[in-house]
Amino acid sequence: MSSLVQDALAHATTALLTADLGLAEKVIQEDATIDTIQHELDARTINLMARQQPVASDLRALVSSLRMSADLERMGDLADHIAKLARKRFPGTAVPPELALTIDEMGRTAGKIIAKMSSVIEHRDIARALEIEADDDEMDVLHRKIITTLLADDWGYGVETAIDMTLLARFYERCADHAVSIARRVYFLVTGEYAAPRA
Amino acid sequence: MSSLVQDALAHATTALLTADLGLAEKVIQEDATIDTIQHELDARTINLMARQQPVASDLRALVSSLRMSADLERMGDLADHIAKLARKRFPGTAVPPELALTIDEMGRTAGKIIAKMSSVIEHRDIARALEIEADDDEMDVLHRKIITTLLADDWGYGVETAIDMTLLARFYERCADHAVSIARRVYFLVTGEYAAPRA
Fold this sequence. Notes:
Chain A is mainly α. Chain A has helices spanning 2-18, 21-52, 56-89, 97-123, 126-151, 158-191.
């Protein structure tokens, strides 16, 4: 799921910035695959709960699996929303040239966060789980940069583009939030403690 | 949790429309209460899973409880976001007079949906679970009405207010989505079938 989500977000960003309708359609179609994997994964998790009667840390891991699959499914939805906006504005682009670089950075920052999150899930890599907190701060900086640009006196793209950019910035930021949430769950599973709140 | 969420959203809407700073602060503070209840509820749910070793429908109900508490917690966050926007724009109001009625309707529609959702949770009221789907369609109509107003040639409130309204409309809509999701989970628990998709 995490690698499909990573691809979906990267492709959605490319589709958005290059007005690639085919790629946008691909992301939109493949969201159903992510949903299907979630349903199968959750069914297996619940089946294990019923058959193995787990307690303590095994049960906590299974409960965390249900929560993480919900986060990943939602991240897929957010990539789908980005792709749908790319499709809606085709053959134009939703993102004006002045903001293309910042959206590209948001996409790359989200990609970096998701890649680290995958490593946290796969290898229970606690050091990386803590790095994600700082990466998420970068995302917040990029988000504020977008809003500052929209509010500048020389904003020349009107309200529709401002609405698009407001939603896009939020989709990337929420996607990162879900990745942070997953990293924190793994951190808790491994250490039994909550990750230190960000400074 | 559902009655606290219902109050939080109603108070956030009033704070927003009447620039009531004290009420906005109250909603923001009480979000922590909703989060605490979620943690306690989930701890009890996981404890039941470990001690009672439930299978079949009992296990499904407990898993659904974990998912519904996550939806309710997120609904509380969305009310908190609305209250924070009211606070940010104080002593002004985020909502221009032309849109106050529509935001008020979004708040009332969300309140109606949350009240029905509470009844669905408490009484496993399946008929009401189906009604919520239609109520959510009303919410989508109100959302489109907001966006149409923002895009009209005579929109005279500039980009900052357009950004505020875009996010507000999304917060109300997402809140309703989570309530729909909870109603569908209860429907599935009671009937073993998924609620019919909306026409």
